[in-house]
Design a protein that fits this description.
This protein is α+β, with helices and mostly antiparallel strands and about 450 residues long. Helices cover about 30% and strands about 15% of the residues. It binds heme C and copper (II) ion.
Length: about 450
């Protein structure tokens, strides 16, 4: 068989491009340019900008901003000189079509040593100059440059963030086989302690808080990041830059907030189905309030009382029983119920491919749920970063739980947030639960403060 190399379409142009200007005229340059500038302008005018690198609220983010500003100025000057110069020369050097003479060429310059040296050395000097503040800023951002006071492990998971507080200070890892040796960072240490899929035997003594990272304001918080499934990226623009979380690996980062407040973020690395709905919320509290928060998080949640003989159980108690039978196989709730503890020991590595479901021990103390996309309480907008943190510790006492949304979530979570429970990623729907069951579950969840 022979292959014909004859082109099937004629290479002879059918429309003659007579003059360059005609081609340019065909592009709607005016409207395109106007639209692009307008889009830029409008985006800069946004009032509420929770994900704004240009509004640093901590020393790390300030460091990035202080580096960015002078470099932007240099870039803009170079851009204006080069592009502006090109445009000016194009316009003043233009020959009218009727004056065009093929043989009338400008003076041809080849091998102009001075010019070539100049345009090689000038950018080299510029780049070398910029590299000093750049390298020193990168160095400043490295966590171990100045160790912080609180250690938190950040674990990315499809599709929410988990924060592990090493409260007892014995590290993030666990001696699973009890031989006194720990599995270490980057695969060294005791291989018997290795647990798939994290390749890290995480310490079940630590405090696990999903979705909302609560930190003391004015302190550097050291982060150790990893992931249970795919690569995610941790990013709180007003507190620091991005850092990837990689399964089976640890990366290090830190954040600090100058003042109490809420600082939002979004997963910065495409991680599948609900990537866009994997948000973060950092709440910085005054130090005394942070200590109070931590103490409460470490305490057990209450078990609703059993009904007296012959009486109906309270809604909370009924909800608790549904929870124990339907939800506790995935969700940890630390309480004093030894039967439940025996049945479902505290183990964050639940019945899921990605390894764990949110710890619900103190569910009602957070302002957001489901990857920080929904508000736990009516009247709080999860996208609005002006959460009144002075009220944060009292949320569960003063605000009204978002019961309607929670009800919809428990009945059919995959309808509220795209998930893949068939593949054991995310929370399944519970079509078998009656309306009363769900009502009782919501009543029970409201007690978890
Ligand atoms: C198969 C495991 C599994 C079971 C069973 C399960 N869940 Fe979940 N649940 C999850 C996962 C995973 C998430 C996180 C989903 C996300 O945000 O992407 C979640 C999230 C939640 C949340 C939001 C928590 C937060 O802070 O973001 C609540 C509330 C919840 N589940 C309640 C329940 C209740 C009530 C039941 C029992 C009816 C239940 N779950 C059963 C896996 C499970
Ligand atoms: Cu992600």
């Amino acid at each position: 068989m022979s292959v014909s190399l004859t082109p099937t379409t004629s290479l002879t142009p059918t429309t003659k491009i007579r003059k360059g200007r005609n081609f340019v005229r065909r592009l709607p340059l005016g409207p395109t340019g106007a639209l692009a500038s307008l889009a830029l302008l409008v985006s800069a005018c946004a009032e509420d900008k929770p994900l704004n690198t240009f509004e640093p609220r901590g020393p790390k983010a300030q460091g990035i901003y202080d580096l960015m500003t002078p470099i932007w100025i240099i870039m803009i000057v170079v851009f204006v000189v080069v592009v502006g110069g090109t445009l000016v020369l194009t316009v003043i050097g233009r020959v009218k079509p009727e004056d065009y003479d093929e043989n009338d060429l400008p003076k041809q310059v080849h091998g102009h040593t001075v010019a070539e040296l100049a345009w090689t050395i000038a950018p080299a000097i510029l780049l070398a100059g910029v590299s000093f503040p750049m390298v020193s800023a990168i160095w400043d951002l490295e966590r171990d440059n100045k160790p912080g006071e609180l250690d938190v492990m950040v674990i990315g998971q499809q599709w929410y963030w988990e924060y592990r507080y090493d409260v007892d200070g014995d590290g993030f890892f666990e001696d699973v086989d009890g031989d006194g040796e720990l599995y270490g960072i980057e695969g060294d240490g005791d291989q018997d302690d290795k647990e798939w899929p994290l390749n890290l035997a995480l310490d079940d003594d630590d405090l696990s808080v999903p979705n909302q990272l609560v930190i003391p304001a004015g302190q550097q918080v050291d982060l150790t990041l990893t992931s249970r499934d795919v690569v995610h990226s941790f990013w709180i623009p007003r507190l620091n830059g991005k850092r990837d979380t990689v399964p089976g690996r640890l990366t290090f980062w830190s954040i600090d907030a100058d003042k109490p407040g809420e600082y939002n973020g979004a997963c910065g690395e495409f991680c599948g189905l609900s990537h866009a709905r994997m948000r973060m919320s950092v709440v910085a509290l005054p130090e005394a309030e942070f200590d109070q928060w931590l103490k409460n998080q470490m305490s057990l949640s209450e078990v609703p009382e059993e009904p007296a003989q012959g009486q109906d159980p309270s809604p909370e108690r009924a909800g608790y029983e549904v929870f124990a039978s339907q939800c506790a196989r995935c969700h940890v709730v630390n309480n004093s119920d030894s039967a439940l503890q025996e049945l479902y020991p505290k183990d964050f590595e639940a019945d899921l491919l990605s390894g764990a479901a949110p710890d619900l021990t103190k569910f009602a103390t957070r302002s957001v749920f489901a990857g920080a996309i929904f508000s736990q309480y009516s009247g709080i907008d999860p996208d609005d970063d002006n959460l009144d943190v002075t009220n944060y510790l009292q949320l569960a006492g003063t605000e009204r739980l978002n019961e309607a949304l929670l009800t919809r979530w428990i009945k059919n979570a995959p309808e509220e947030k795209a998930m893949y429970p068939e593949g054991r990623r995310g929370m399944p729907a519970f079509p078998g639960l009656s309306d009363t069951d769900v009502e009782n579950l919501v009543a029970y969840l409201a007690t978890l403060d």
